[in-house]
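JOB MANIFEST
job_type = single_chain_structure
chain_count = 1
residues = 95
[input]
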Amino acid sequence: MSALTLDYIPRSQFVDFHNRHQRFALMVVHRRGGKTVAAVNDLILKALRTKKKNARFFYIAPFYSQAKSIAWQYLTDATRSFATDIRQSELSVEL
């Protein structure tokens, strides 16, 4: 498999978040601090590194429309070069 590169350089406050070994994490960051971008890219990194077969990863928000308006564009932009299937109607990306 060829090496994949993400066009993402984490801000200093998110380095520990990305290097954690725990499954769940909490970020206390100010408004417009980059929480969504960090969360989406962490999701992508974890999905690419998993050894589980047919693993599924989710970005969850209180409402479907909220998740779409907040994170969908970040997810599609970050995975466009290597995603095997991007389904706009289902809001799903297959890597």
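[summary]
The mean pLDDT is 93.
DSSP finds three helices and two strands in the chain.
exit_status = 0
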